[in-house]
Amino acid sequence: MAPLELLRTVGTKKALSKPQNAIILLIVGGRYEGLEQVLRKRGYTVVVPSTADQAVALCLHNPIAATLIDRESLAQENDWSLAQSLKMVAPHTPVLLLVKGRVPKREGIPVGVDWIARDKEPAQVLGALKRFVRLSMERMQAQGDPIDEQVSSG
User: Fold this and answer.
1) Which has more pLDDT, 115 or 15?
2) CA 93 to each of CA 34, 38, 98: distance values in angstroms, whole numbers, following the listed order
3) Across the chain, what does the average pLDDT equal?
4) In sequence order, what are the residues at sequence separation of 6 or more whose Cβ sits closer than 8 angstroms to the Cβ of residue 134?
5) Phi-psi bin for 78: left (phi > 0), alpha (psi -120 to 50), beta?
6) What CATH number was assigned to the domain covering residues 3-32+41-115+122-147?
7) Who's near 149: CB < 8 A, 6+ residues apart?
8) What DSSP character marks residue 80?
9) Which of 58, 74, 100, 152 is deepest in the core (most CB within 10 A)?
10) pLDDT for residue 62 is more than 70
């Protein structure tokens, strides 16, 4: 989906002023079938990029409130992860990592990841996502609406 097409699909300045209409990138490789529906029911606009490059392009050209990614999608190539790429183009966009089993303590938090949650604790994941989205939306509003600038320059 082209950036301008996404802007038309996702919404307007008025829609973005409400946190429940925040854009969430969901990069989980199809392993969490119900997650997209749960997020949509909670009022989020969910975008599921098909490639890592598309995810980066979406972050570069759109006001993404948060990104939810799983361990497999985070995979590093040449010591560089998708989370790091996302942070390069959108440094203030929170990246939340879903892990199966226990949260890794020895490794620490991977570079580019802001928060780690167990996939078996949905209330914790949704609570953290809600907090990160609220903070992102407040930051976006304080900086002015990026959509107006992108549409007028596009």
Assistant:
1) 115
2) 23, 21, 16
3) 77
4) 19
5) left
6) 3.40.50.2300
7) none
8) B
9) 58
10) yes
